[in-house]
Write a structure and sequence with these properties.
The chain has 4 helices and 18 strands.
């Protein structure tokens, strides 16, 4: 295993010290607070077990928390008839990634709060995150040269406008601090955030820290959502929520180049619109259900695969090159469907479908033009481990015909390019078991089997085991 497995190494000490000190302030606040008034009636139920290292009371106007996630992952050697610069390497390898996040928030009033998060992402992914559309570790930054220096991940203002007098319980966390919200409301957010914080969410398949690890399992692979290399953007988000449905819209910034670290602030040159409708029907008795319908439109200086192929055949480029074009503000759009259904108190099923037009280059997330997935998770209550969870999923990714031709002629995207292509859908099976050890400490065991890595039947299959240590402070 790589050096990243040293969870509490010296370079992490300042982060951990800050989180521990600030969290201890919350503990002190909770201990100094007056006890709740006594109430008549039967004794209350046993309190829920603590799932963070430190308690986080709901009463302070401020919020401080943290997390550390370490994933060690690798693969044995696998067959490959040929490899290119952007290929998953066929030789055995093992890599470790680390993500540390400090979450902070401050309530300015009953309806307004400021949320600021600082993060560090270090280590590397197998083959530096190249060669797979459905890459096996969502924590990996697609440019390892950025290093592990701390950066501002989120900085947003969040304002709630009540549209009804009745309210409902809400869970306090890094993205919202109120413990009760109006049942009918508008929410406004502005600042820096990740589109995946609010769009295409799925309770069974959106969290690489406690659930699945694959990029195209935790997110819709065909959703080329606006983001810099680390996965964040600046934008404005409007969200209307009612009792059993909701709709949200966001306008956000796109990167200046595909997979770029810098964002384009001139909205005439680049921007992204995102729209999602959430429905919560009652399909199976009283078990929770969710149906989410997603649409997105990206405007950016994107190349077209057909143009890159035409330039190559006209001998204007030595290989098809999606970046070799003049400034051209193109449009890329797509749609997504997201489902989840609880069948019992322990068992949930989920699925996704996604499609984008596939004529313009994959720009911000990954190289997928069509995708579908189906899976589920199961809570370990039956064997006395109610905080343990096991999951299994099948995801199949594809690309458009012109995208296939581009890669087959030797073209490269920002993730893929073996030098040739014997096309086949990239299909991945993933299973995990997440073990709750104590308070906020978890250990996860994950196994992925990838067929046709990078859509290439001349390479693979490859098996990718992983071990994960997660700490919620």
């Amino acid at each position: 295993m790589g050096s990243g497995c040293a969870l509490f190494s010296s370079r992490h000490a300042p982060w951990i010290l800050v989180a521990v000190v600030l969290a201890s302030l919350q503990i002190s606040y909770a201990q100094d607070a007056p006890p709740p008034a006594s109430t008549s009636g039967p004794a209350s139920e046993e309190p829920a077990p603590l799932t963070t290292m430190f308690s986080h009371p709901d009463s302070p106007p401020w919020y401080v928390a943290g997390q550390i996630n370490v994933i060690s992952q690798g693969h044995p050697s696998f067959p490959a008839l040929y490899s290119g610069r952007n290929s998953l390497q066929p030789k055995a390898e093992w890599r470790t990634s680390e993500v540390l996040t400090l979450f902070t928030g401050l309530q300015l009033g009953p309806q307004t709060e400021i949320l600021v998060d600082v993060e560090s992402a270090g280590g590397r992914g197998i083959s530096d995150a190249l060669g797979l559309a459905g890459f096996t570790n969502l924590d990996v930054v697609r440019n390892p040269d950025l290093g592990r220096s701390p950066y501002l991940a989120r900085a947003m203002i969040h304002h709630v406008i009540a549209l009804s007098s009745d309210s409902q319980e809400a869970q306090r966390g890094p993205l919202a601090l109120a413990t009760r919200l109006p049942a009918r409301r508008f929410e406004l957010r502005a600042g820096k955030f990740s589109m995946a914080d609010f769009f295409d969410l799925n309770n069974a398949g959106s969290d690489s820290h406690l659930q699945f690890m694959n990029w195209t399992v935790d997110n819709n692979g065909a959703y080329d959502y606006a983001a810099d290399t680390r996965g964040y953007t600046f934008g404005v988000l409007l969200d209307f929520e009612d009792h059993n449905w909701g709709v949200r819209f966001a306008e956000s910034l796109m990167p200046t180049v595909a997979n770029g670290q810098h964002l384009q602030w001139n909205l005439r040159r680049a921007r992204a619109e995102n729209l999602e409708l959430d429905l919560y029907p009652k399909l199976v008795a009283d078990r929770p259900s969710a149906l989410r319908l997603l649409a997105f439109v990206n405007h950016a200086n994107m190349g077209a695969y057909g143009d890159a192929i035409a330039d190559f055949r006209a001998h204007r480029t030595t290989l098809p090159d999606i970046t070799a074009h003049p400034l051209d503000i193109a449009v890329k759009y797509g749609f997504g469907l997201n489902l989840e259904q609880a069948l019992t108190a322990q068992l949930r099923l989920f699925g996704r479908w996604g499609w984008n037009e596939g004529q313009h280059e994959s720009y911000a997330y990954t190289e997928v033009d069509q995708t579908w997935e189906f899976g589920g998770d199961y809570r370990g209550t039956r064997w006395g481990r109610s905080l343990d969870k096991a999951g299994a999923v099948l995801v199949s990714n594809g690309i458009s015909r012109v995208h296939q031709q581009y890669l087959g002629l030797g073209g490269r995207g920002f993730l893929l390019g073996d030098g040739a292509l014997d096309y086949g859908r990239e299909t991945i099976e993933e299973g995990y078991y997440n073990l709750h050890l104590w308070r906020g400490l978890y250990a996860g065991f994950d196994l992925q089997h990838v067929n046709n890595p990078g859509y290439n039947r001349a390479r693979g299959p490859v098996v990718v085991p992983a071990i994960r240590i997660h700490l919620d402070l």
